[in-house]
Amino acid sequence: MLKNFQYDPKAVSRGMSALRRLKKWGPLALLPVLAGCSEGILAAHGPVAAEERQLLFEALACMLLVVVPVILLTLTLAWWFRASNRSATYRPTWSYSGRIEFIIWIIPLLVVLFLAGLSWSGSHELDPYKAIQSNKKPLAVEVVSMDWKWLFIYPEQGIATVNELVIPTGRPVNFKLTSATVMNSFFIPGLAGQIYTMAGMQTRLSVEADDAGAYRGMSAQFSGDGFSDMRFNAIAMNDGQFDAWVEHVRSNAIGSLNNDVFDLLARTHNVQSKVYYSQVEGNVFEHALSMHRAHPAGSAMPGMAMSNLREKVGP
Q: Which residues are within 8 A (CB) of 165 and not within 5 positions of it... i.e. 6 or more apart?
C-alpha cells in the first residue's frame, strides 16, 4: 500500500486548513450543550447562592483587569519589536525605568488589596452561621452525614428522612449539621456553598430557595467506597405542598427514629434509597453529638472497633 502512496501538497494544505477551522470554530459547537446547563454554582436559585455568584463575578472581573491588558501588551510588544519593524527603537544598553517599574508593581498591589477587601467583606456577608432576614419563621432541619447517606431530621414536624430533603420556598432554612462517622461536606450547588460536617462537632448553614424545583445535593468530601453515590434530592415547594409532603412522610414511614434506630442506621455502611420515619423520639441529633464527645479517641460508634468501619452491612 505504501508503494502506491503519492504526496499531494494540495491535499495536505486542505487538511491543515480544515484543522485550523476546527480549532477556531470547534468550541462554538459546545455552546448549545452548555446553554442547557441548569445546575451548578452559576445557576443560583436562592439569595445565598446569588450573593456567592456575584462575589465570584466581581473577583473574576477584577482579575481580568490585569490578565487581559497583560496579554494584549505582550502581543503588542512582540509585534512592534519584531525584527522587520524598522520604526522600533533599538536600545541595547537600556536597563531600568522607574515609571515602568512603578506601573508593574502598583497595579498588582491595588488588585490584591481590592481582592482582599472583597474577600473579607464577602466572607462576613456570606457567613454560614448568619441567619437570613425574613418575615417568615425559619424552618429548622438537623443533618447527620453517615456512610454513605444523609439523615435529615425535622424537629418541629417530628419526622425524619434519609436521602431526601424537602424545604418550602421563600422561607429561610436553618441547618444544624454533624457527622456520625468521618468528616464530610454538605453541598447544594444551586442554593448554597458547601460546609463540613464533623463527628462530635456542630456546624450551621442558612439557605433559602426562591424557586420551586428539584436541586442536586451531594457530598463534596471523599469519605469512602460509597462516596460517589452519596447524593440526595433537595426539593423546594410551596407551603401547601410542603405540609402535604409531611403527611406523605408520616403515611409511608417504616417506623419511628430513636437513639437505637439511629445507632443501627449509622452502623450500616451502605448506600440507601430514601427512607421515611414518622416520629422522632428524643433528641437524636444531640445523641449523635454526645456519642462522639464521650468517645473522642474511640470508634465512630460506641463499642465498635475502628476496623469495623470498613465492613458493609446490608440494610
A: 141, 150, 152, 217, 232, 233, 234, 235
